[in-house]
Amino acid sequence: VHGDKGRAVRESTTVAIIGAGIGGLTAAIALDRQGIPVEVYERAPQLNEVGAGIGLWPNAIRVLDRLGVGGHVRALAVPGTSASARTAAGRRLFGMPEDVLHRRYHAPTTAIMRADLQLHLAREYGMERIRLGHEFTGCAQAGDRIDVRFANGESTTAGLLVGADGVWSTVRADVFDDGPPTYRGDTAWRGLASLTADLEPFDDVFETFGRGARFGAFPLSGDRVMWFAGAVARAGEKDGPDPRQELRERFANWHDPIPRLLELSDPERILRNDIYDRPVPRTWSRGRVVLLGDAAHPMGPDLGQGACQAIEDGETLALAVAHHDEVTEALAAYEKVRAPRVRSVARVVGLTGWAAGLRGPVACRVRDQVMAATPSAVRRRQMDAVAGWNPPWS
Ligand SMILES: Cc1cc2nc3c(=O)[nH]c(=O)nc-3n(C[C@H](O)[C@H](O)[C@H](O)COP(=O)(O)OP(=O)(O)OC[C@H]3O[C@@H](n4cnc5c(N)ncnc54)[C@H](O)[C@@H]3O)c2cc1C
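Above: inputs. Below: predicted complex with flavin-adenine dinucleotide.
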């Protein structure tokens, strides 16, 4: 597809990716598919099975399809589900049949345990090729070469360094030095419920908005339901030994099946994360070091687009490198595509987060009325903008 364009880069540049998360591994697979030499360095000594679930939108699933790794994720989707937004009392504010969305965007909307997706991508890339136990500590650029150092005393050289090391990115701290993330003011819980006979199987992906709190659930194949809850809270607040206690209090009077889902969840597998944010840097690269995913633009849980955007970044970066003769040209092209895209998704994310954080009864009533009254054409345009995205190169 790209002919001779980018051949110089492909033949002479080794790309070192820091972080074997969702974005780093997608980038690694995409670079591999383009024939570009790539190494992945991950600080963890092994990739764990534990963790929480994340929602995946069609825009991300189509990227995985194009890379030939979407089948695993598609297999988790529960066909025939619908998506709806509700009030805490259970009133439906609006709904969208999932099969309509599926047809429109050529992919399902589904959810997956983050660790499951990470392991799947790692296996597709080649588990044995990931350099585990390599914590990036710093780098130095000289000409077209970057010397990279790790905490275990090892070092390497690369022609392009990708910081895919998450919201607390050490690459960003080392190269961009623009301060740490800040607490956003809310916290999130995620869990997995195993359905039992006394809970009707349900096929509704829902998100429920209350006062300063929200709850959402995603049916998964195998009679499991992934759920998340969010609430305004002080930084660093901890739950007791059974987090369901805290959640029961917060969500006691919310509509069915919310209290039941909490009861049917394994308390040891409920994760709580305070949400941290940081501004997108003015430019995404410095010389031959570039940022990707949460390292560049954390999005938190609102709208469930953080990992989806990291996946889009990974594919676009590989395509940009494959289509340009110079690394720095490729990085400029990557940013030119990704910066406006991330800005536009972040606007929708910001609006959702703001609406979910409203606490006053009047403000919440107005919010609910606006949600219920928004014409479906407007909602479709918003969905198209997020879920319909494709990269400019193929
Ligand atoms: C509560 C919550 C709910 C969410 N829900 C969703 C959702 O429904 N849908 C969605 O799309 N997104 C969701 N997200 C966001 C999503 O989890 C992130 O956006 C996504 O994981 C970012 O991927 P990443 O590859 O950029 O970073 P990460 O997945 O954070 O991966 C970074 C990797 O880098 C490694 N690393 C870190 N430092 C170093 C170092 N110094 N050296 C080497 N390796 C290092 C880490 O160990 C890790 O493996 C949610 C986030 C939160 C907090």
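The mean pLDDT is 92.
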